[in-house]
Amino acid sequence: MTDRTPLLSVRDLQVHFKVASDSPWPWAKPQLLKAVDGLSFDVFPGETLGIVGESGCGKSTLARAMLNLIPVTAGSIIWQGQEMRGAGAPEWHALRKSVQMIFQDPLACLDPRMTVGQIIAQPLHTHLPQLPAQEVMQRVRAMMQKVGLTTQQINRYPHEFSGGQCQRIGIARALVLEPKLVICDEPVSALDVSIQAQIINLLMALQAQMGLALVFIAHDLAVVRHISQRVMVMYLGRAMELASKQALYLAPQHPYTQALLSAIPSPDPRRERHKKLQLLQGELPSPIHPPSGCIFRTRCPQAIAACAEQKPEIRSLSSGAQVACDLI
Amino acid sequence: MALLEVRNLNVQFKTLDGVVTAVNGLSFDLERGQTLGIVGESGSGKSQTVLAMMGLLASNGSATGQALLEGQDLLRLPPKALNSIRGNRVAMIFQDPMTSLNPYLTVERQMTEVLELHKGMTRRQARVRAVQALDAVKIPDAARRLAMYPHEFSGGMRQRVMIAMALLCEPDVLIADEPTTALDVTVQAQILALLRELQREHGTAIVMITHDLGVVAGLCDQVMVLYGGRVMEQASAESIFYQPTHPYTVGLLGALPRIGNDNPSLLAIPGAPPDMARLPSGCPFNERCQWREPQCVSQRPALTALPEKPDVWRACHKSAAQIQPLKPSPAP
Description:
The complex is a heterodimer of chains A (328) and B (332).
Chain A: E1 8-19, E2 31-43, E3 48-52, H1 59-66, E4 74-79, E5 82-83, H2 89-98, E6 99-102, H3 116-127, H4 133-146, H5 163-175, E7 181-185, H6 193-210, E8 213-218, H7 221-227, E9 230-235, E10 238-244, H8 245-250, H9 255-263, H10 269-274, E11 315-316, E12 322-323
Parallel strand pairs in A: 3-8, 3-9, 6-7, 7-8
Antiparallel strand pairs in A: 1-2, 1-4, 4-5, 9-10, 10-12, 11-12
Chain B: E1 4-15, E2 18-30, E3 35-39, H1 46-53, E4 61-69, E5 72-73, H2 79-85, E6 90-93, H3 97-100, H4 107-119, H5 123-136, H6 142-145, H7 155-167, E7 173-177, H8 185-202, E8 205-210, H9 213-219, E9 222-227, E10 230-236, H10 237-242, H11 247-254, H12 294-298, E11 304-305, E12 313-314
Parallel strand pairs in B: 3-8, 3-9, 6-7, 7-8
Antiparallel strand pairs in B: 1-2, 1-4, 4-5, 9-10, 10-12, 11-12
């Protein structure tokens, strides 16, 4: 965090999907699902930006849009000063050498017909085709050791590994190119607690070793708090709050952040029993018909009539936190 | 006599790898209005324990031991007698509400069926009762939603329907198998608050199966920690969370990222959960335990009560005083 020129800047990013209309008429216009609706944030070298939100809030869409794996509707993605919006396939190909991704389901993201060695070598073949085969194998072996696999396992297939080990293979594949930024989409949510801790420790150790920046997407607020320096809270495709970890967890400003934090059960019986729950009413509204004005107002305990009128823009408070709520 | 007494429950499966013992020598008592938490990682035998009690094991599985509901052994009841208890005096909520509701039937049909069968109500009476039950789990506009199919409900609402259905006959025991794992945290908090409220009103005893220690802390009086199909530690929730005496319990608590804790690295348990067909000799946890001694490999520790605290049961060769909370070590 010493260098304050951002590695990646996202400005007013929008990803909209056309979905079939509810109307029975075939000529009815398709409806618009705003999966990501106007997000702006920066990722700085070496830092971890956590992104949290409930299912359906657009976290995974955002991750994919950042790598142009799904088409972006509007807004800009700026990588080290270079505008990527409108860039062609060669530019994106070059970018993906420095920005890699780790996926949620460790087994599903590995080709069952490839050996571990082939899987980890794949990014090298794609991005550094001139590399001699010997050098490729050397880098693959070195990477396997770094993520805690043994080099004897190089000719095995993914099904021979447990979930935690598969996630290590996924991490090795993402890091073998020595990227600058890794986007982790729920990398530990499919793992048991004891294995989850191993993978989080591994990611943090590798980050320190290789100077990586991470975008860490998860629904588990405790995990995100552990690994991140800054955290963005999303709700229905929009950012509700973006703040440093300390500010967000100690003094959450947005009513949604407050509700999310109070909903996490903590492993402490005395505290749990005397906790004042700030229960949110109802559930996530449909993203096809989002509420007018503030999208959170239908579940917000502090909502007033004015919230239905105007969409609150995200703005900076004096503390440095950014909040999208007009009542603060 | 406790409401539910389980004695030396064993569950075995015949597989191509030979006979696999999924649950081994499990015993507990459950009183009215109490909650027992069963905690463990995937494959530790927590679901098979309750499936065995409900007579729902897969066809290659068999259970031995006793599960006494007010003295009546559920494991030895003929199917007809068991059917009059299941869904009536002992009800169950499953992890995935979509796959455990029938997609072809309206919620009304699925709910009234229970009452017609167990309580001999007419359809009309059953319908009134079903609306009350949906109201009790705070489903808005219950009368209208009764006519809907499961796919028309959201995940949280479906779980509420499951709970309403399980509570229709006001069961003595409610078994909840990971009831909130598939749900978002804000919805999970709603469902847990609902379970607590319903327990207070009806005095239902709850068996809560979960891998989430946070859920256990808020809901359970007694906790049983399973590993490799065996009980590692069994004690009150207070004792488990504040004075864990077994290395695995200590490890589980250390591996958990917490909101109020700023340790730079988590205390991961090395290795992976065991393959049930190839359990290590001696203590099932010995390969991952940092207090391991030769004795742990050669001899399996028995589950015994602590002399100074007779309600704390643990299976470990080391004394409770030797098991200190872990200190952070650098990541691998």
